[in-house]
Specification:
- The chain is mostly beta strands and 171 residues long.
- 0% of the residues lie in helices and 42% in strands.
- The strands form 6 sheets. Strands 2, 5, 7, 10, 11 and 12 form a 6-stranded mixed β-sheet that branches.
- The protein is rod-shaped, with a radius of gyration of 31 Å.
Amino acid sequence: ENNTAVCTSAAYVVTVNPTPVATATPASQTLCSGSVSSIALSSSVSGTTFAWTVTSQTGASGASAGSGPSIAQTLTATGATAGTVVYSVTPTANGCAGTPVSVTITVNPTPTVIATPASQTLCSGAASSIALSGPVTGTTFAWTVTSQTGASGASAGSGPSIAQTLTATGA
């Protein structure tokens, strides 16, 4: 019997991939209702991919889960106050998922104007009295004169009411 011991050695290569870190630029954004978000996603780890979920959507619509190098979605405010959308973005590179980052988008409502009264008839030399209001708090109003025929005194302006002395220029 042969009692010879055989020794062998083996070399193993272990690759340690870095964990990607997501950077959202900007990390938060404010936009008007009906506008498209513009959040660029990047990482210092080459080949990183990004996927996001919607963690909350309050007073806004249009947000959905997705993937890619940017979050570009048309967001709409659903009420008279600002809405918010919060995304959770997860970076992945070489099979390694990084820690999710949060992106918050504020969606401001589109203001509307209510003119009271909507039309007015007055005597030459009298002042108009049209109150301007709207459902969105903090709305300011500005107007231009689009037509002035047979009358004078109308001019562009701003404020909560249109109060201008108007004069008929003809018979």
